[in-house]
């Protein structure tokens, strides 16, 4: 599930009086979703609870994450956890890049094409979105639609 969706779900749960705390490795996406409270771990995506096979580190991250329930008193706050993935931040330069020297041949970018305008599966979805945005009722877009 994407970070933004989790943030939106967290806000809905909080409205039902269920406290939530999001863990994220994507600060900008999390900030855009504005969950009630979150912790940020500057690790590669998919490693939000730490490296596999390091139970002591995983436990420490989880303990610090749960402690944020007591520490965060401002809605939308994101607490930075103090852990580092590596001695330097060099891993960030290659984390989202294709592998080099692929012995199987040239790397092919097979990701879905991105478009600047919203894409809808059904015409009815587009009509519903237009109607919602016209009234500025979209919970996803609060603060984005101007």
Task: Tell me what the structure shows.
The protein is mainly α. The protein has a domain at 2-94. Helices cover 34% and strands 8% of the residues. It contains four helices and three strands. It has helices at residues 3-15, 27-33, 55-71, 123-134; strands spanning 22-24, 37-40, 77-80. It has a three-stranded parallel β-sheet with strand order 1-2-3, with helices on both faces. The protein is flat, with a radius of gyration of 19 Å.
For the secondary structure, the number of strands is 3
Strand coverage percent: 5-15%
Low-confidence runs: none
Q: Please bin the fraction of helical residues.
A: 25-40%
Gap between N and C termini: 27 Å
Strand order of the largest sheet: 1-2-3
Element pattern in H and E: HEHEHEH
| Structure classification | mainly alpha
Rounded to the nearest angstrom, the radius of gyration is 19 Å
Name the overall outline. Answer: flat
Describe the sheet with the most strands: 3 strands, parallel
Count up the helices.
4
Average pLDDT value? 80
Oligomer designation: single chain
């Amino acid at each position: 599930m994407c970070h933004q969706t989790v943030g939106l779900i967290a806000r809905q749960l909080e409205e039902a009086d269920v406290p939530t705390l999001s863990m994220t490795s994507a600060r900008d996406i999390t900030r855009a979703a504005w969950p009630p409270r979150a912790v940020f771990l500057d690790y590669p995506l998919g490693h939000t609870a730490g490296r596999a096979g390091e139970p002591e580190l995983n436990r420490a991250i989880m303990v610090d994450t749960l402690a944020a329930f007591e520490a965060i008193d401002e809605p939308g706050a994101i607490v930075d956890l103090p852990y580092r993935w590596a001695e330097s931040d060099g891993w960030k330069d290659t984390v989202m890049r294709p592998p080099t020297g692929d012995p199987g041949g040239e790397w092919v970018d097979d990701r879905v094409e991105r478009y600047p305008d919203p894409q809808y599966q059904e015409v009815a979805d587009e009509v519903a979105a237009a109607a919602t945005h016209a009234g500025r009722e979209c919970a996803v877009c609060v603060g984005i639609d101007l």
